[in-house]
């Protein structure tokens, strides 16, 4: 894909280092014993805490080291300078690292998938179309804002009963899944969403009930040779196939249903650009799945940080209390809250991967770089104001902003970035306008990795009227 990925380290296909500043070979993480490899078959704690494992290796071995994820050999990086080089030299059609379990499943079921699973010219063709609609010139903007605000207002009103009764919000994770899926469905349909809304909410509720299981089981399979788990019909593989079947069957039925109502949303715009039939279904299916998981958890982490930093929450409420919707989206403090939350809890995969020309793999350790004092002042603290520009136009407390790349960069950056930012900002602002958000967990909440960052235990939120 490119002759050298990291000029600083001169990493070539054989991963030899020629720089005199570093040792002659990339450091390697200690190899697992046979016993530890076998224990991974029954103990998934390492999968859940893989971000800590990677961060610990960087602290011991430096900004670059080599290790294995299950059967896959990879080079790990946590240097923002090297992140930039990866995106600079990635080429026109870079490949992303995909979990082996999903590739095996797609092959077994003979199913084609959306943008995340596409490569080469096929990916480039469809990505250019989606970019026009969702990135630049962003013809979907008005639909996104209207859909996001309506869904935020609905959820805020739905939660009023728990505020009135001073109850912990039950099943917050599932509610946020449903909210995120509903926003995506509303964006897909546009003006006809209200006609479909009653049916759509039932379908979104079903999907919210099973979607998180897919990512949880995928994380377990990531430490195993998935092909052997499949051949041996291990329980974890059978469970994965079951929930993947349920999830994809449900989402593929949704697309023709929504399409039959017409509308002026994303579905309409994609069809105008020539995306039809099976291609439309497979792309939209993956958009729904991706939006449901990452946005739901990113929002939950932001709520958690606001609930445990009341002074920041109060300042946020004060700033947005009199603003119109478009002003809230552009508010610098609101943007800072989002950036800071995504820096501390990067749900767009803690480990972000790219294939090299020789079939090798480079992984960017986003959790590690986001909490590195070389990149951020007081890196473990929630300080949204660090993202406000000073008189010189710089950020105070940000030594290297490339240490946090929640939506990635380059041609394969997150196509749903503007949608996610809009819906999260409007929900957070709507909630802090109406309520004080509190957290009643007695124990410390940590990250647990299910391919993306999820809370180590259910977060107990309760609301009081503001």
From TrEMBL:
GO molecular function: heme binding; iron ion binding; monooxygenase activity; oxidoreductase activity, acting on paired donors, with incorporation or reduction of molecular oxygen
InterPro entries documented for this protein: CYP11_CYP27_families, Cyt_P450, Cyt_P450_E_grp-I, Cyt_P450_sf
Residues that bind heme: 414
A Pfam family that the UniProt record links to this protein: p450
Cofactor(s) the protein requires to work: heme
Alphabetic keyword roster: Heme, Iron, Metal-binding, Monooxygenase, Oxidoreductase
Gene3D superfamilies with a match to the protein in the record: Cytochrome P450 (1.10.630.10)
Keyword Hydrolase: no
Entry annotated with the keyword Iron: yes
Domain of life: Eukaryota
Cleavable signal peptide: none
Protein family membership: Belongs to the cytochrome P450 family.
PANTHER family with a match to the protein in the record: CYTOCHROME P450 (PTHR24279)
Name of the featured protein: Cytochrome P450
Organism for this UniProt entry: Aphidius gifuensis (Parasitoid wasp)
Lineage of the organism: Eukaryota, Metazoa, Ecdysozoa, Arthropoda, Hexapoda
């Amino acid at each position: 894909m490119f002759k050298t990925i990291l000029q600083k380290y001169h990493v070539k296909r054989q991963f030899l280092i020629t720089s005199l500043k570093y040792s002659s070979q990339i450091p390697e993480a200690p190899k697992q014993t046979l016993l530890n490899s076998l224990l991974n078959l029954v103990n998934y704690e390492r999968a859940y805490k893989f971000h800590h494992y990677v961060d610990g290796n960087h602290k011991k071995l430096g900004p670059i080291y080599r290790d294995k994820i299950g059967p896959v050999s990879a080079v790990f990086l946590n240097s923002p300078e090297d992140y930039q080089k990866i995106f600079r030299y990635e080429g026109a059609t870079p490949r992303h690292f995909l979990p082996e379990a999903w590739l095996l499943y797609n092959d077994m079921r003979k199913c084609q998938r959306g943008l995340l699973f596409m490569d080469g010219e096929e990916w480039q063709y469809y990505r250019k179309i989606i970019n026009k609609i969702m990135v630049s010139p962003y013809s979907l903007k008005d639909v996104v804002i209207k859909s996001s605000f309506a869904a935020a207002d609905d959820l805020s009103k739905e939660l009023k009963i728990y505020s009135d009764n001073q109850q912990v919000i039950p099943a917050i994770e599932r509610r946020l899944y449903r909210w995120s899926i509903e926003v995506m469905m509303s964006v897909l349909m546009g003006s006809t969403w209200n006609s479909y809304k009653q049916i759509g909410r039932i379908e979104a509720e079903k999907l919210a009930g099973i979607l998180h299981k897919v990512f949880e089981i995928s994380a377990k399979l990531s430490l195993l040779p998935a092909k052997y788990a499949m051949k041996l019909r291990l329980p974890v593989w059978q469970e994965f196939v079951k929930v993947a079947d349920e999830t994809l069957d449900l989402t593929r039925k949704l697309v023709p249903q929504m399409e039959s109502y017409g509308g002026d949303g994303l579905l309409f715009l994609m069809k105008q650009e020539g995306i039809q039939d099976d291609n439309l279904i497979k792309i939209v299916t993956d958009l729904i799945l991706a939006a449901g998981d990452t946005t739901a958890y990113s929002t939950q982490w932001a709520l958690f940080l606001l609930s445990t930093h009341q002074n920041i929450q109060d300042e946020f409420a004060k700033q947005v209390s009199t603003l119109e919707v478009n002003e809230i989206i552009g508010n610098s403090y609101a943007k800072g809250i989002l950036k800071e939350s995504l820096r501390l809890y990067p749900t767009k995969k803690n480990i972000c991967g790219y294939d090299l020309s020789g079939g090798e793999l480079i992984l960017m350790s986003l959790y590690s770089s986001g909490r590195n004092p070389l990149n951020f002042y007081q890196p473990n603290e929630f300080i949204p104001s660090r993202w406000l520009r000073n008189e010189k136009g710089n950020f105070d407390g940000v030594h290297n902003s490339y240490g946090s790349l929640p939506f990635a960069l380059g041609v394969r950056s997150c196509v749903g970035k503007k949608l996610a930012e809009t819906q999260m900002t409007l929900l957070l602002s709507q909630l802090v306008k109406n309520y004080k958000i509190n957290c009643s967990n007695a124990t410390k909440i940590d990250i647990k990795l299910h391919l993306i960052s999820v809370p180590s235990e259910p977060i107990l939120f309760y609301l009081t009227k503001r």
